[in-house]
Amino acid sequence: MNLLRLAFRLLLRDSRAGELRVLSLAVMLSVAGLAAVHGFGERMQAALSLESNRLLGADLVLVSDHVIDTSVAAAAQAQGLVTAQTMQFPSMISTADNNQLADIKAVGVGYPLRGQLRIAASLSTVDKPAIGIPLAGTVWLAPRLANALNVRVGDGVTVGYRQLRVAALLIDEPDRGGDFFNLAPRLLMNQVDIAATGLVTAGSRVTYRLLVAGASPILAAYQTVLAKNLVRGQRLMAAGDARPELRDVLDKAERYLGLSVLLAVMLAAVAILLAARHFLHRHLDTCALLRCFGASQASIVKLYMWQLALLGVFAAVAGALLGYAGQAILAEILGKLANLTLPPVSVLPFLQATLAGWVLLAGFSLPTLLMLRHTPAMHILRKDAIALDKLGVFAYVTGLFALVALLFWQVQDVTLTGVVLLGLAAVLLVTVTLSALLVLAAGWLGARSAGSWRYGLLNLRRRAGGSVIQISAFTLGLLALLLLTIVRGDLLDNWHATIPAQAPNRFVINIQADQVAPLREFLRQHHIEQAQLYPMIRGRLTAINGREVSSANYADQQTQRLLDREFNLSYAIMLPADTRVIAGRSWQAGDNIEQFSVEQGIADKLHLQLGDSLQFDIAGTPITAKISSLRKVNWDSFKVNFFVIANPPLLQTIPASYITSFYLPPTASSLLNEMVRTYPNLTVIDVSAIMQTIQDMLNRVTTAVQFVFAFSLVAGLLVLYAALAATRDERAVETALWRVLGAKKQQLWQVQLTEFMTIGMLAGILAATGASVIAWGLSTFVFKLVYHIDWWLWISAISVGGVGVSVAGILGLWRISHVPPLVTLRGEY
Amino acid sequence: MIFRVVDLAKQVKVNDAVLTILHPSSFDIVRGASVAIVGASGSGKSTLLGLLAGLDTPSQGTVWLAGQSLTALNEDGRARLRGELIGFVFQSFQLLPNLTALENVMLPLELNGVKQAKQQAQEWLTRVGLAHRQHHRAQQLSGGEQQRVAIARAFVVQPAVLLADEPTGNLDAETGARVIDLLFELNREQGTTLVLVTHDSQLAGRCSQRLNLDAGHLA
Asked: Which residues of B touch A297 (CB under 8 A)?
């Protein structure tokens, strides 16, 4: 018997009749979603690890805030590893007419060990790989710096005490590091000139780097030894540590993509389950007929297995193609953001996604379809001879196990998957229980009401099992959509709040006390009203509660670095207006008790509490006061802020320089030249380029998030469609019978509307509640955001549920309502 | 002897009460006979037909089909025997709606692994006068045409027995008469044993043997 051919023919015919639409779309969608997200993830990972060595300029980098002992490099060289050294610090560079803050990098022979420098003679000429490093007496300038100083190749610039000649424009350097946070443009010079500039003296804030490269086993051994012998102020960077700022945003984006895919897969599973159930009921007659023709149970199983397998192959191939397009779109949106060349995607994500799609299909439809073999042949003569649903429980449990295993395997984020699955399990349990009770209540209400409503409510009761399944399916579908909308909204708000419109884009430091009043007047005259000038005093934290502080007492490297440096302290009559005091209280003007307000993050790191006393050493003078408040500071706002602020009585007698930040519209940049001419000692830091880059990055991540959201949206709609299709046949026959009995169309719609509206609204309530609970869990444990309950969610979910289900349900029955009742009753619609 | 029925009875449990649908009955049907099972609605006609076909299992008694005891076989064994010996015609035609007339007729042949399925199915569609409609789907055919397709499908496997459940129940008198003529004509040509359930006394009158059922009792 050629079962394969028969299976193929039945499949073809069924698909033409639209019977397999939901089943194949669900498989296709889950394969496409998984393939797109994993395909893109794989390319991004590969690109990042390929590039991370290049981004470090080496295989391993030792970063130090003091000179690195020569023995460290010698030990590496002795093992056959190559090394190079760099020093990096900010300094003002000047010409006869201009000056500009630059980020100076002085490099030694051999730099860079990985990747290459690219230089050009002018911006209009094509750049080329550099041979070696700048010769002694010459520098290479970033184009931005050359423009700001108005110099060309061949001109001279003053670096400290030394005049150096510009030999080239520096177009690209491999270890530029966090592109976004390089405040000042680069000046690359030869290390041998450093001494002559006089810029590096004891106590200068210089970052020293030792770059190391070589064969991996030797390098790994060397890295282990080096890691053990790190001294304070030193840290190691290996491949993978590059571009942390990018990783953070990408991590969050990837987690959201993971969540979207997880929900899309889950919804697809529900759609498959519903579609398989529907398929089962529509094929009972066929099975009974095949039994009459002598087909054995085994051949019926084989026939449907073949059908499923064929469907799985077609749907997976279509899904994989769609997924390929999806990952290409994601790569287009997000790949450019990272400025990385993405390698081509491998076949692995597609194979994995296909396998996952098959597991889903098999897990959720095979058990249901296997029940078909139990179709009693007598069904062909007597329609009542059927009792298949008892086996359903087994089928659903098997499917559920397959789904859970699949999600953990595919999403590979235990917290995310755990929170979502636990939440869903709880929601499902509550939904089934509550909807069963509500269905009973509707029946009770129906029995006591009159008119067409009565039949609508009674229908709910009569189809109790089906009603509960439908409410649960709608709840899950709506819940997933609400959840994605909430989390997406929170994420986007969070990202966009990072940079408010008109956030300060210029920082001015080094303002002297006698310049404060005239500068304030200068800014006011040029309509820059919001600029606040803050005093800035440098001091070293020496004691907490009278006990001497040592960085050795803290395990965290960042805390150690903080304590080894000087703090920037400030004082103010009142704390800045947007300060959020989270413990204690802010002081008032005229409060004479000397006190500090400390930023919460640093307080946590140093284990500080309200009432603790802090002692700072400011130019040899000890200053002591207690902490009266802890503040939360939004560092991303780009406004001037301080870890520690005092009230005026404590610090106002100490000499201070001042700092300010303000928003300068792009059209007003000439103002800065005038300001620097008037006050040549000021240093202006331009952060507009960084902000533009961050904004661009967030926009791209937002687009990617919206794109993947679309997958889940379609999956959600598919579930709603499948849930409706499940009872369409039964409703069609009922509608026809009502019409035979003389019901008016209005009455018919009233009955159906009552039922749909009740189901939709119940699902809305349950979905809004479930989504809120899960969103809280995700915000708290996965995305680390603050979650706010939004009561509008319930109102919109109930409206969307009620109206959406009604409209979709009525549309589904619309065609049938125009078919003569007899045609419907004959099953020919 | 194609059927030997000994002491056959069927009971079902409904809400803890035992309902007897068919009281113990015994009869024989000879090869080539045409048998009408008649009786009022609910008298147990379809149950008896189901038991004869091995679609259902009796509560007691035995059905021997071509010397084989149906009760001694399991469901798959009975299905195999049905595939080999029995053709069916149903009141509601039971064509697969998504398949064409030709594919519907080919179905039992393909299930039995017959190589010339298409050719044989076409021949049978020609014999029932539907060669021109072979590529139409079941849904596109009239009731009479659907029943003729069902008859072609029943005869295409050249069964020893043709079981028909109210074959004219869904058809108007004229179409019904034409379908019955066709059924008897093919029955005669093929030497098939015809067992049909009917309300139609005229139709019952054309059969060589009558089994009257009255509330589960064989009169």
From this structure: 75-76, 79
